[in-house]
Input
Amino acid sequence: MSVDPTSTDDTADLAATFAKEDDRFHVVLGEAGGKGAAIRAGVAGAEGSTILTCDADLAVDPSEFSQLVEPATRGFVAIASRSVSGSSRQDEPLLRLIAGRGFNALARVLVLPGIHDSQCGFKAFPRDVGETLLAQTTLDGWVFDVEFLALARRAGVRVQECPVAWQYCHGSTVRVLRDAAGVLRDLWLLRRRLGRVKAAGTS
Output
């Protein structure tokens, strides 16, 4: 399943080519609505009991997907992490690294204590769990991931960070300075709405 919210490169054309060659592959074209909207559309059209979401740039090699799928089959929300023991990150620009680390630190303080990297775009979860959580999400931008994980914790679903080898891909649409004000606003609104959501069994 490929969800393309009006990309400006040839991603949609490549995905359509794959779909013609393999009937298990489907393409969903939609209006630009951010990451949250894309994930909701993809999960709604996907099949199977376990869902894996990934960025189109494949910054994490597909050979590593199994380590996300395995805990997801046991009821976890499994997230790829670039910031836990055993992980690695390559070729990431310094500004992007600083911004990402700063965002995750702020997310830990305000909403998600103990989660080192909420933003890596590779996650797996049971289909029924994902559908329930996604129906409660309201955000579409950077903070969507934090909202999804906070809702999972609030529902008593365990979140597991899985170390991955991550390769920075040039052409990212994230603009640190442009997006900063909106990100801070969404984080604060999420804190007011959900509070600081700890993992089950922690004090």
Residues 87 and 164 are 5 Å apart (CA to CA). The chain has a mean pLDDT of 88. The helical segments are 11-21, 34-45, 66-73, 94-110, 127-134, 144-154, 176-194.
